[in-house]
Amino acid sequence: MAASNWTTPHPSTFILLGIPGLEAAHVWISIPFCTVYILSVVGNCLLLAVIKSEPSLHEPMYLFLAMLAFADLLICTTTVPKTLCIFWFRDQAIHIDACLIQVFLIHSLTTMESGFMLAMAFDRYVAICNPLRHSDILTHQAIAKIGLGVVLRGIMVLGPYPFLLKQLPYCTNIISHTYCEFMALVKLACVDTTGLRAYGLVVAFLTAGLDFILIILSYILILRAVFSLQSKEARRKSLSTCSSHVCVMIAFYTPAFFSFFSHRFGHVAPHVHILIANVYLLLPPMLNPIIYGVRTPGIRQRLLYILGLKPA
What we know:
The chain is an all-alpha fold and 312 residues long. Helices cover 73% and strands 3% of the residues. It is built from eleven helices and three strands. The chain has helices at residues 26-53, 60-89, 96-129, 134-137, 140-158, 160-166, 182-186, 194-226, 232-264, 270-295, 297-306, and strands at 13-16, 93-95, 174-175. The chain has a three-stranded mixed beta sheet. Helix 2 runs antiparallel to helix 10 and helix 3 (96-129) runs antiparallel to helix 9. It is globular and about 65 Å long. The termini are far apart.
């Protein structure tokens, strides 16, 4: 569907261009996309299998990690298959309902990821700052309630997005992106979207932004508690328990904030922004299992056993 054939402000189908300016390289770009996707699916499935099969890992940190891994699986599967269809088969059309579902899933799942990382930071705070009450505070029932709260927050706060977007009249149905994204659709609207943009900013601040602030606050308290310890070995062990979570947090929030601010306030080249937006969705799901698999002895040993590389 060409832009010149545009006739209605309420389309039934949108056209995803992929990465404008790099169309000739789409097939080559698909190779790392496909590789990262396969690694993400395999890595997170193995991580879930390890946590499920190893009773010693049924602790708050790893149960929250399992929730994060499941969200990672869903979010990369929400975007990559359609992206690869664009790259390989030029299958660029997407029905408006599928597009709006993709918007909802992308934003709600990334909000859930942020919430699970906040829960993991809270677990580390309790474990280090109040270790004697750790098992009393983070019971399995409390963990289930926290997980459910994170999921419900993602659904309820982001639920209005598809309904608000469907009401808009659009000047074109051409989306210069590899997937349907809230701001990408807002920019196509033929009406004033100041209120909608403000709503998006408020939602982003009250979810990922607030989560990030609380995570930073928790680590300030953790560091204060750690450096008050007399033993260097105790300080080292305490910090090592947080290192994997810090790496995961950096991998998630760095491209997330870059993508968010460049979409709203920045002036970067379109293909750079789209690549960063994809990195934001694809890199954390691939890195999370690797980081925890390498740095956590319990996960590493059980993984080697599942893969047949270590005897029981």
